[in-house]
Design a protein that fits this description.
binds FE2/S2 (inorganic) cluster, mainly beta, Ubiquitin-like (UB roll)
Length: 107
């Protein structure tokens, strides 16, 4: 079996072509398809990490992909802590990465 792209009209499972949409990530316009998750949109556009950890600034993106780990959080239309793997992207969405600092400890 070889890896190859099958055109939608030639696909034996009769897949339909979805409506196109545009959203932005970190100010850059991205093209996607209706029904994609935010994580799907980012991955399809070659973005595999979209936030950094608070402790060491390590890159994070999709980990579990099922809404359990919260590694994929982003800000969507000013709403913080949105799990990118669970939110379907909508046309015109503004997606931003989150780079949170550790809270200050008061003694
Ligand atoms: S990747 Fe784990 S919650 Fe989204």
């Amino acid at each position: 079996m070889t890896a190859r792209l099958i055109r939608a009209e030639d696909d034996p499972i009769e897949r339909r072509v979805s409506a196109r949409l545009t959203a932005t990530f970190d100010g850059k316009p991205l093209e996607g398809e209706a029904g994609q998750t935010v994580a799907g949109l980012l991955l399809a556009n070659g973005i595999d990490s979209w936030r950094t950890t608070s402790v060491n600034g390590r890159p994070r993106g999709l980990f579990c992909g099922i809404g359990v780990c919260f590694d994929c959080i982003v800000t969507v239309n000013d709403e913080r802590d949105v799990r990118a793997c669970q939110r379907r992207v909508r046309d015109g969405d503004v997606v931003c990465p989150q780079h949170d600092e550790l809270p200050e400890v008061k003694h």
